Amino acid sequence: MIGCGAMGGGMALLFAENGVNVSLSDPAEKAMDTIIKKGKEAGYKNKLKKFKDYKELCNSLSKPRLIVFSLPHGSVGDKVLEGLMPHLSRNDIILDCGNEHFANTERRQEKCKEPGIRYIGCGVSGGYQAARAGPSMCPGGDQSALKELLPLLKRIAAKDKDGKPCVEIIGKGGSGHYVKMVHNGIEHGMMSAICEAWGMMRKMGLGYEEIGKVFAEWNKTGELEGTFLIYIGADLSSKRDPETTSDGEHPLVISEVLDKVVQDITGEEGTGIWSNTEAIELHIPAFTLNIAHALRLASAYRGDREQANKIFNGGFPPQNLSVKDKGAFIEDLRKATYVACLASYIQGLNIIAAADKEHGWNINYSSVWQIWRGGCIIQADYISDEILAPVLKSTNASPETLNLNLNPRAAKDISKCYPSLRTIVAKSVETDQVTPAISATLEYFKVVTGTDLPTSFYEAELDYFGNHKFDKKGDPDPQVKKPMEGKYHFEWKPAVSQKEAYGK
Ligand SMILES: NC(=O)C1=CN([C@@H]2O[C@H](COP(=O)(O)OP(=O)(O)OC[C@H]3O[C@@H](n4cnc5c(N)ncnc54)[C@H](OP(=O)(O)O)[C@@H]3O)[C@@H](O)[C@H]2O)C=CC1
Ligand SMILES: O=C(CO)[C@H](O)[C@H](O)COP(=O)(O)O
């Protein structure tokens, strides 16, 4: 296990629990000692050993070796690979369990080809608790290595509600890391919508623990049933700090958490940036994911926000929400949260489908479905059973069939929940609530199902100044339905000389 932090430490213990001898490497000796101590306490006798140099570490492993990375993304992995290479042999496997950029994964796979080392990009999900108990795993790369590894991975992976392991072969090349990256993009869309709903409930006057109870209800039944992020939202809402304050209180931890999400800016994580960049580069409209990312960014600048708040004389803070029927409003909020979560899935799947076509990864979509069934952060039982299963589990699921905006079952739910989504956004606008992902979701569904968009005017302006051409309404040519340049240009205003324009 190279990298013994929150995730690597948990996975090292998980492997040891499953009878595997684990050799540890981390710059922090203390991190390795802690894992060894925990292993001893758990009764995994002599299963965990620490190593300072790669030669000794590699000599300690039986062949073909399995080397697991749980490292920060980027150059760290390159340096580690460089250092390990001289001590590895043909057929050894590197299982990169970090959140690595798929292009780095593919570059390393290329580098490993000649010496015959098999490099697998394997996103893992579920946080450090799942790393210890069994994560959802998303491996892609060399098929022979994947087939050899799968039995072991199935032993350690999370199990879904039917007891099936949440790990399957995703596809070739960097597809495993790609799917995990998009998982995180979806995660961010869902987390944004959920925190926005939480913010509105706070402004309705609900206490932290009361909101926890609402989330617990949402998680029990209906469209948000079995949604991990709703479940942990319920759980965290009642956690109290064991330290007492001066007045003898044990404060709710959530009441003390500052409103900033920083890891995109600190570089700690990259998946949010990469998944949005991918959406843009692959021409996928991903309103909910894009704005969720922007909310994180804006939130990170706490100091700037404080200064702007002063300059704007207090800014535009959310007003207290008075609603006639609290129960009905919370039900609208639940439905709005659900459609924003579903929109996040739809946008994420559209990104994966476009990338699969572009890279020829041949992604197995029933594997994607299975790894998202349990153990991962975006686990959502209702969405999985009702919406995704009929599409992703199908034996002929392909990038062409993945667009859930064209799926009648998804359309039924979105149409049913749309009035609630509109009610929530309208109330939010009226009272200055912070609801970017929920509002963007309303716009998203309006736009992707709309056949009378104001972009006619946009197109005309583009043609006016740029000769960018347009197509005409009613043209029977099927090409006009494709994203291709239009056939017509109108001379809205002929170009004139400088003298004619400026009169000199
Ligand atoms: N935390 C989470 O919830 C999840 C994280 N991930 C991904 O898993 C990976 C690990 O994350 P996480 O455990 O949270 O991060 P941590 O920072 O806790 O762990 C990373 C570990 O790698 C160590 N490290 C740095 N350089 C080297 C090196 N050259 N050789 C060996 N070890 C090294 C670090 O040591 P030091 O601190 O001394 O530099 C640290 O102990 C990341 O890619 C992350 O994106 C994936 C899913 C969930
Ligand atoms: O990969 C993860 C979950 O799936 C990690 O928890 C990750 O650290 C979350 O950070 P970010 O919100 O920046 O993706």
UniProtKB/TrEMBL annotation:
GO biological process terms held by the UniProt record: D-gluconate metabolic process; pentose-phosphate shunt
Reaction catalysis annotation: 6-phospho-D-gluconate + NADP(+) = D-ribulose 5-phosphate + CO2 + NADPH
Active-site positions on this chain: K180 (proton acceptor), E187 (proton donor)
Enzyme's top EC category: oxidoreductase
Listed EC numbers: 1.1.1.44
UniProt keyword annotations, A-Z: Gluconate utilization, NADP, Oxidoreductase, Pentose shunt
Domain named 6-phosphogluconate dehydrogenase C-terminal: residues: 176-493
GO molecular function: NADP binding; phosphogluconate dehydrogenase (decarboxylating) activity
Any matching Pfam family: NAD_binding_2
Presence of the UniProt keyword S-adenosyl-L-methionine in the record: no
InterPro entries named among the record's database cross-references: 6-PGluconate_DH-like_C_sf, 6PGD_dom2, 6PGDH_C, 6PGDH_Gnd/GntZ, 6PGDH_NADP-bd, NAD(P)-bd_dom_sf, Pgluconate_DH
Listed pathway(s): Carbohydrate degradation; pentose phosphate pathway; D-ribulose 5-phosphate from D-glucose 6-phosphate (oxidative stage): step 3/3
Keyword Translocase carried by entry: no
UniProt superkingdom: Eukaryota
Quaternary state and interactors: Homodimer.
Similarity comment text for this entry: Belongs to the 6-phosphogluconate dehydrogenase family.
Task of the protein: Catalyzes the oxidative decarboxylation of 6-phosphogluconate to ribulose 5-phosphate and CO(2), with concomitant reduction of NADP to NADPH.
PANTHER family (UniProt xref): 6-PHOSPHOGLUCONATE DEHYDROGENASE
Name by which UniProt lists this protein: 6-phosphogluconate dehydrogenase, decarboxylating
